[in-house]
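Two records follow; treat each independently.
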Amino acid sequence: MQSRCRCACPESASARSDGAETACGGGGGSRRIARLDGITMEEPVVRWSCAARRKVVASHVPPAADSIQPLCFSPEETNKKRAPAFHFVEAERACSAAWSDRSREWMTRASESPSGGATKPGASRHSHTPCGRKGTSRQATPSPSPQRPATHAPAAGRRRLIMAPSSLPSVLLILLISVLPACLASIPVSDGLEQLGADGLYREILRDETVLRLKELGKISDGEGFLERTFLSPASFRATDVIISWMKDAGLTTWVDQMGNIHGRFEPSNSTDKALLIGSHMDTVIDAGMYDGALGIICAISALKVLRVTGKLQRLTRPVEVIAFSDEEGVRFQTTFLGSAAVAGILPESILQVSDKSGTTVQEALRLNSFEASAAALGQVKYSPESVGSYVEVHLEQGPVLEALRYPLGVVKGIAGQTRLKVIVDGSQGHAGTVPMKLRRDPMVAAAELVVTLEGLCKDPSRFLTYDEECGCFTEESLAGLVCTVGELLTWPSASNVIPGQVNFTVDIRAMDDLVRETIVASFSRIVMQRCDHRLVDCAVEHKHSAAATPCDPELTAQLKRATRSAVSAMAPGGHGHAGAESTATPVLMSGAGHDAMAMARLTRVGMLFVRCRGGVSHSPEEHVAEDDVWAAGLALLRFLDQHAVAEL
């Protein structure tokens, strides 16, 4: 058999390596590039400097009170003129100055007054703020009350009061009461979260709260003892209520569309820019892990909550919307991307008549849950391309590459194309003990041979692809991501003492290169017919699903890469679980799994961020993402928003 695949054609190789990076940087300098199955390791990350943080820490030491002029700003002015990390520094200085001034005033009056400095009964003991707005200060001086005449007590008694050691606590208490309001007035009014995130990492929201919410959502299930949450199930509606409450907590306006997708949006005033959409899916497979889909939704909500508590949400330059898609896995109706395809406007009207295993159609399921379930309703879900600028998705990797590279995050260069087939093999059903081996038409044996043949086809395509198929000249890179899977096999009548009459099995073929995938599908279909003829059984190959490979937008990918580098570098010096990661290049991966970004790419440009998962395990209760990696993902998304959607002051 003659093969043309994996040949070295310079012109074809260059045509197919449009995404490959050169080994030379700008300015004549060179950089090393490592490759691993479609992963490109690029320029190293610059190590973050701790100098700024040391300055902040040092500034918390109060200076001498008489060496400064206390300054106060209103909370609004403080937020505009000072970063959150410096709020307490200003307050501390103002309080130190106020305490010093008030102490000198009281002691001077006690020593110089002919009456020993006792407070006049009519004098005001209310504190005067030692400073005013806009940086002006005013001296706090007592004034006699206009309602009461000034009177004096016996001088000796007053002197004894000042001199007696047992009376000192009373004086200190008066001083504290006088100065405390001034101190409190100098601290910006907030819910305290911006001070907790004064280092810019916001651990309390982006890690601690996010992890708690992932666990809470992971407990909302239709299954007993395992996680299962499918399209329009009772658990999906309980999850909807919880997600809406989190969106509102982040300051977003919420609604549920006609396909059950949950939306949370912030619309800045006077903005004419296109919206930035951030999302993932809320449905799960059967016996699922709690991170698939949910991680992207909750990280997005947490990042926007940080913008709210730091006052930056009002400074967004474009609408930002978080979407929790109702169905991506396709478990119930065996068709993927119901939620995101509806938003992208590519969901056909015929989908309403697709049935689940119980015979319930999509239309009936929608109407049972008070949705309109009509073609017009689907049209209401669709977004217009003119209103959307980009879509970004955070998702766990579902593979082992990032863990092998010891890096928490990776940016996605593209998503593999996918084809799903159903192979039906019909034979002769018979008694297991009475039909001789040479006279059998056994579909089980034929199916087993086809499964093994598929494995060989995808492991070593050059053994099967020929001139006749006009496969072209495939590069090693285009074949590297090719994977084939038989995930389901059914027999009839499925009894131990019966030769099966029919065997059905599914085939999942994925590749980064659409021509490779299409060639493998055509080659396997041909082999099926040849082997079935040889075994005297009847075969059919049904095409159930096909999706082209989806490249991610290069500009969004570069922006996410910069945000990732910034986040990981900021976390590394603090010993937050990413030691050494700051000196590693940000990985660039191809995704072999399908994601909502594939459907959204039909609407707008897309970008994706992958998060490391333990052992590369997904679609399993063993699925796990480290808490610090959850934190890194939220921080990277926050940095992305800060850099590209928040206006500078």
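The next record belongs to a different protein.
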Amino acid sequence: MRHPFDGSSWKEFDKKYPNFSREPRNVRLRLATDGFNPFGNMSLGHSTWSVVLTTYNLPPWLCMKESSFMLTLLIPGPKSPGKDMDIFLKPLVDELKPLWQEGLHTKDAMTNTFFTMKAALLWAINDFPACSSLSGWSGQGYNACPTCNEDTSSVYASNKVVYLGHRRFLDANHRWRTSLGFNGEPETKAPPPPPKQFSLADIEDQLGRLLHRLPGKHPDFGGPKRKREEFELNWTKRSIFFELEYWSTLQLKHNLDVMHIERNMCDSLLGTLIMNDKTKDTSNARDYLKTLNIRRTQWLQEKGNKRVFGQRYFYTNSRPLHILKATLLPNTIGGGYEESQRCHYFNIVQVRVDLSFNIFEIMVRLVLHLPDEAIRGGSIYMRWVYPFERYMKKLKKFVSNKVYMMKIQSSPNFHPDLYALSIGEDKNAFTYTACIVNGDRFMVLGRDAKRITQISGVLAEEENGEKFYGQVEEIIELCYPNGYSTVLFQCKLFDTRRGVTFNNNITSINTEREWDKEDKLIFASQVKQVFYIQGPSGANQSKKTILFVMADIMPRGHGGDGAEDPPPPGGFRRGCQEEDVVLARKGRGTAKNIKVLHAFAKNGRKPLRLTFDRFATFSPIGDVGDMFIRDVGNYMWRNIVFDKDSWASVSEEEKNALNEHMRIRDL
């Protein structure tokens, strides 16, 4: 089977409408529709729907080519049309009606003659939710299967509806029929024939019982959710396709999409076998086993205050995939099957693997009907949505960028900076350990911790005045087209919701807890530089005091590494140019407080001679003077609270401690 022509539905259509089939140039169409988000991450809730037609009057290698696609409708968002899809399909159906009845005067380019060309919609192919919107049969509830209809075998297991009854395909004397291990009950239904086939007359009878409801979600029309009567089964509407004269006689109206079925089924089955995040073996499923009083080894076990899983089933080989390839797929693709083969896969899952009831979702149930549809519709690759999914990806590129549309339309709101942002950043980002922003040098915490000085503290302030304090952990540069770039700081932000105290222009915060660890990025242009010191003696060790904000004073040259760095140029609107990020190129010398120890040892561990300028500054001078100032300054930085306006304000206790420190070091 290489073409839909090989399926029974095509041949049955030819028998019912011989006048149409007598002209081989009459067109047979297939309809596909699905929703997509044209704006990507800019609008996560947006859904635009495309309706695409393609013709089967071509060789198999051309039918599914993009060149034969006809984009007939593009339904704008932002919401999915849902069960009101018929409103948007009305213009298309109105055009298909005369194409079937009168036809269209057409020229045959091959023979240079004219003929009356007619067209018929052979079937539709969609994923399962879209199939519900088009067909009118709801894909939820106890009768979710559109093929089994009201004969769907389902139960409410724990917190969801599952679809069972596969053991009825076994032979009447099969030992699994009498087993109570699956659901606590034997299988009493008769063996094959397969599930009940609802005739076209049965479907028409069900649709004739539907209540008349106006389309739309207005409260006057019943609102977005309408309660169905029991006799309406799962029908929500009579599809607009029934207005086509031939639609009610088609054997196969809405195809089950193999692509989505195989993906969802394999995710559920293999996810349960290897117990990943898509497993169906949940605590609710285990509780349901206890309700049925079966499989005691798999019940949840009480251990202290916790409930743990009982026995699990793991597969360490490729047996499940082998079953899929060797049993299910060949029968589906080949178009032929035996009843024992069709149920073989499901009984392996049900009894031999003995897994959770939750795995038997509607997608697993639909696999039963794929062989029947292969017989009716022909080869699967002519009836799945892979080509249309790729086509929708192409459609996304046309409208995903609003700014690009502004550029094409020469909108006055267009700006090159906005266009660069809309295209998106380069896939490769650059990281640095230091950079200059607004004249201030910042350094990452990992590198800053090895230094005596401190330049990793940041302060970010929102428009409402709320302040965030933290330290830079990583510096990231994002590059955009046309030479634009922006710099982000990944910061360790302290949780200041527990209180911030202000005293004499000194801010104290608690650094014990961090803010949201998932939201740590700040634009470099939005931060100010701050310095942290330990809180007063005796205070909580996690309490830190912000000494002062660097941005409130004039930025100056940066000593140490990178003192010769040039001033930063004008940068991007919300960041800085790549040239602003300058890596340190110079190494640091020996710290002066280390040098004083070396000088003391070199002097035979005798006190160093200290000289003062008694005429001008009254400060220590010379090499020893510089070392003395650094050593005393370091001690005061670590031990004297920075809330004194002069030396006279320092307490006698702190002065005596400083003198004792100098005596011990022989200064």
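Discussion point: Residues 592-664 form one domain. How would you locate this feature using only the token line?
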